[in-house]
Design brief:
2 helices, 2 strands, about 40% helix
Length: about 60
């Protein structure tokens, strides 16, 4: 995978109160658009595979 797709920019967002206190802020990661799309495709593929494994079966392994 290309290096720029794996990198993100971490930005500090202030929730409320004093800017100097860590408890009043949180970090978010800004990703490239292509990286976000690729990540969503990978997550959907994994989720689909897990869902198929859970619904296929004859009783004890089946959820539905």
């Amino acid at each position: 995978m290309k290096g720029s797709l794996r990198l993100g920019l971490i930005v500090k967002l202030v929730k409320k109160g004093n800017l100097r206190e860590c408890k009043n802020s949180r970090g978010i990661t800004l990703l490239s658009v292509v990286g976000k799309i690729l990540g969503r495709i990978i997550i959907d593929q994994i989720r689909g595979g897990v869902d198929r494994r859970l619904t296929v079966g004859n009783g004890e392994n089946s959820i539905t």
